[in-house]
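hey so i finally got around to running the thing on that chain from the lab meeting. sorry it took forever, my laptop kept dying and i had to restart like 3 times. anyway pasting the input first so we r on the same page abt which one it is
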Amino acid sequence: MKIILFVLIILFQAENITAQAIIKGAIKDETGLPVQYASAGLIDAADSTLIRGSLSDENGMYLIENITSGRYRILASFLGYDHVYSDVFELKPENKSATVDISFLSKGILLDETVILAKRPFLEQKADRLVVNVASSAVAAGGTAMEILQKVPGVVIIQDKVTMGGSQNLQVWVDGKPSPYTDMNTFLRDMPGDQIDKIELITQPGAQFDAAGGPILNIVLKRNADLGFKGTAALTIGGSRYDQSDVGADKENFYRINPSVNLTYRNGKINLFGNTSYNQGNYFDVFIINRYIGQDVYKSNNIDRTDYSFRNIRIGADYFVTDKTTVGTVLRTWSRMADGKSFNKTNVFDQTESILYTTFNTENVTDSRRSGVFSNIYYKFDFDRKTGHSFNADLDYNLFNTTNINDLTIYPDDSPQLKSLSRQAVDQPVNIIVGKADYKLPIDSSFTPFCLSGFLFCAGCSRKLRKRAGTG
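ok and heres what got predicted. didnt touch it at all, straight out
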């Protein structure tokens, strides 16, 4: 019974304790005043890669947590200022924190005719959300959505599970709509970063969002609006080799290959777009656990390796009927195949760890197949784009299929013929049809309750009331 209990604990829990520190500091302008909501990025001094990002608060203070030892720099950016790099500093294993202050220098802006060019910062704080501008940052090159989120403040990822603001009830949306994917952790891990325009972290969703509770992570995929035809192709290849002798395994090679193609065409009132990507590779998880159950000590080493392939195709069209009216459709299909194998060796000792009672092994072989089709038809009418006064209607159809097979084998180390076998098979098809309509009318402080009542029930005075509200 103790062995079975411990196997269940191993399958669902893991611990990873490392010495980590925080980096903090103040961001000020040339006069010494604090700069609010400036972007602060922790940069690896060796190759200038972004490790993690943060934003300054109302007092100009930033904080970057859970950082391991190494040599770093701080990159600060804010609209109207040149980017500023700090000096290289070293965070040693015995350090618990480091303080790095940044001061901006004013940047003169030269106007040519009436054109102003500005690069969006990696992190941008808005009234109701934090925006991660992926397309304007080199951080997306060769990375995945999961790897990008690891650099965003407020996002915590443990064993590929994404949480935000301490909430476990995180909703993941795609293009402003609830995601059609059933396994979002897998989707985020496989989605190439070059497919993403921006990521919005909405901690307190407003009335325009579904009342499902919890923060929203909205992934906005690219939709190029340039006139004419435009196409891009990319190929990312990566590899690594790890010595896993500490868990009883040999040196193993790991790789990832990710080709992708994006095509857009816009001519007059028609906008066509499509992209396809393929992601193939493998990854592993290793953990070492010591458990104390009663008078016994369980020492176990576990290694989990997965080989996967992910295919994604997305096509769509927009028709701009008038300057205020748009209709469109999107079709997305995807599939993922993965084969995994996990091996765990556990030694059971007495409480002094001087007597070895027994050694048993646990193998878990998984075969996972997932696929889905998402289609959408929408209508949008903008009463006033400046204020966000609009009406939207959507009709979605989602089709998913998930097939998982898990073969679990437990046997003593000295008697491999005494195997305990079990299999779990899941076949889960899902069909979802959703219709939705939203009417959005921003109201400012000049819009009194009396006028609101008149607007709702009296069409004859609607023009006057909209003018008072600043939305007409």
